[in-house]
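User: I'm preparing a small set of examples for a lab meeting where we compare how different chains pack in three dimensions. I only have the primary sequence for this one, and I'd like the structure in token form so I can line it up with the others. Please keep the answer compact; I'll paste it straight into my notes.
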Amino acid sequence: MQFVLNIFIVLHFLGLALLFGGFIVQVKSADKGVSRWMLDGALTSLITGVVMVGIIESGVIDDVAPSASFHAKIAVKLLVVLVITVLAIIGRRKKGPQPALWGIIGVLTLANIVIAVFWN
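Assistant: Understood. Below is the structure token output for the 120-residue chain.
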């Protein structure tokens, strides 16, 4: 089952790359907005994250024992990615430049990365 978890980790990273890459690629653009890649990345990150937590919580992997800190971290990360996903959906439905929405999604994505790396 560790192999399956690792596949979802890779997919989770790919979703993150789509989301943050879609943000970064528009840094110099005058018409900043929510791209299809940002929405796809947000959905990929959300779905793979939920699946990974399900695998870990199921207890089928002996090496991983979720703690209270793990649950708090996952709750915060889930909340952030849900906000990102909702903002990306809203941004895809609106036309025209959306620099504020684009910036909020970028900052929240970076915040989620920092939480993932530094919260132990």
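A couple of notes for your slides: Residues 2-118 form one domain. The chain has a mean pLDDT of 94.

User: Perfect, thanks.
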